[in-house]
Specification:
Blueprint: H1 9-18, E1 28-29, E2 40-41, E3 50-51, H2 52-68, H3 88-95, E4 102-104, H4 108-119, E5 128-132, H5 137-149, H6 154-157, E6 158-161, H7 172-182, E7 186-192, H8 204-213, E8 217-221, H9 233-236, E9 240-243, E10 258-261, H10 263-266, H11 308-324, H12 327-349, E11 353-355, E12 368-372, H13 379-388, E13 391-392, E14 394-396, E15 400-403, H14 412-425
Parallel strand pairs: 2-13, 5-6, 5-7, 7-8, 8-9
Antiparallel strand pairs: 1-3, 4-10, 9-10, 11-12, 12-15, 14-15
């Protein structure tokens, strides 16, 4: 039986005992405090912890390189030549896609540029790109540079979906108004699946439907969505999406990113793209001919053979997610874990902490974005104090502490101790 007092350690312990995937924590390396105790790590939204299987996969590949040299491209259980293919099925399951619609390649922002080379084709009437006002800076830079690359004036061709004055969250009525007013002029909408600062989950299905009705292409940056929430990119008819692999996908800093291109586009081998030989038809690739014949899948957007050491870490991470039972299982625990955090904050801290992430569970993932609401108490100072007390979160200007209890390796005890220490610090 659960203790009725949710703000007790016994309650958290009982929740952990009832958690069917509590054992997954053992599959990760947990950083240590100076005291030797585990950190309370809540920064999976920035860099996920190391899965033990990822380490094993990388060491396995290093050993193969040591023992086989160049023959490692073709020999062993996981030869390097087709290595990215070993990740395809699980990547597709994570983002809700067909295997032919996904590929692991490049880095996130590079993939956004490659996608815009195909899906931002400005015409005289349609030349505008719509993004959100507080987009992650790299996305903003990428979009502005694409406009300039096409000789388009940024001021007249960049549309911004902004929160209303005094609010942090994006309001859909404002987006529908922009689309209604400028729909015939918009060539591309590029938005996050989960807004990095507030943690707001956007309704990707509805946004895509509304945009497509106006003839607008739609892409999503899933950096904070992949591995965090359940996705159905194929069914939602999203044109393209890109994601990194080092946040909720736990594949190591700067690891190889992922890319989704809908089936209706991958089968169009005439679609404009920036080409490279790894995207060329596999059966004739090594004939070294100069006529490009793209693979009729997302692989057709590859440029060069990928860094297999990084792909090995991705493989280990994906295998860990598979061990847990997949995204539905993770999402089920995530909903409980983050709700527990919300409930504890409300009970223990009341108005001293303002949560700007939506209260509706369908509009948030793991992350809660917190603002300290105590006169004379600086949020950045509070973040630093938490760090000194063994709590790893992250800070985003101008005034947010981001906290992400990740279902793969965080437990309910972590959440209990976070709120306890936060209360003591305040």
């Amino acid at each position: 039986m659960l203790d009725n007092e949710i703000n007790t350690l016994n309650y958290a312990l009982a929740l952990d005992k009832a958690d069917p995937i509590a054992h997954m924590r053992e599959h990760f390396a947990i950083p240590k405090q100076a005291s030797g105790e585990n950190e309370y790590y809540f920064t999976g939204n920035s860099l996920g912890l190391q899965p033990k299987l990822a380490r094993e996969a990388v060491i396995e590949l290093l050993d193969a390189w040591q023992q086989r040299g160049v023959k490692g491209h073709f020999e062993g259980d996981f030869p390097w030549m087709p290595y990215h293919e070993f990740l395809t099925e699980q990547a597709a399951e994570i983002v809700g896609a067909l295997p032919k619609e996904v590929v692991m390649m490049n880095s996130l922002t590079a993939n956004l540029h490659f996608m815009m080379a195909s899906f931002y084709q400005p015409a005289k009437q349609r030349s505008k790109i719509l993004i959100e006002d507080h987009a992650f800076p790299s996305d903003h830079y990428a979009v502005e540079s694409q406009l300039k690359h096409h000789g388009k004036d940024v001021e007249n061709n960049l549309l911004l979906w902004k929160p209303r004055d005094g609010e942090e969250l994006l309001n859909y009525d404002d987006l529908w108004q922009i689309i209604a007013q400028h729909g015939d002029e918009i060539a591309l909408i590029l938005l996050p699946g989960v807004q990095y600062y507030t943690g707001q989950v956007l309704d990707m299905k509805l946004i895509t439907q509304v945009a497509h009705a106006k003839g607008i292409k739609v892409g999503f940056d899933l950096a904070h969505a992949a591995g965090n929430i359940e996705l159905s990119l194929h069914d939602w008819q999203v044109d393209f999406a890109c994601w990194c692999s080092y946040k909720y996908l736990n594949s190591g800093a700067g690891s190889v990113a992922g890319c989704f291109i809908h089936q209706k586009h991958v089968e169009n081998t005439e679609l404009n793209r920036l080409a490279g030989w790894w995207g060329h038809d596999k059966s004739t690739r090594f004939k070294m001919e100069n006529t490009f014949k793209p693979i009729a899948s997302a692989e057709g957007w590859q440029l060069s053979n990928p860094p297999v050491l990084s792909l090995a870490a991705v493989r280990g991470s994906y295998d860990t997610i598979k061990l847990a039972g997949g995204m539905q299982v993770l999402r089920n625990k995530s909903l409980k874990l983050t709700q527990y955090l919300l409930d504890l904050i409300a009970l223990e801290l009341g108005e001293k902490i303002r949560v700007i992430t939506p209260a509706d569970a369908n509009q948030r993932g793991c992350q809660l974005s917190l603002m300290v609401n105590v006169a004379g108490l600086d949020g950045k100072a509070m973040y630093n104090t938490l760090e000194e007390n063994g709590i790893t979160t992250d800070w985003r200007e101008p005034n947010v502490i981001r906290v992400a209890p990740v279902p793969l390796y965080n437990n309910f005890q972590d959440v209990y101790h976070f709120v306890r220490i936060l209360k003591e610090c305040i």
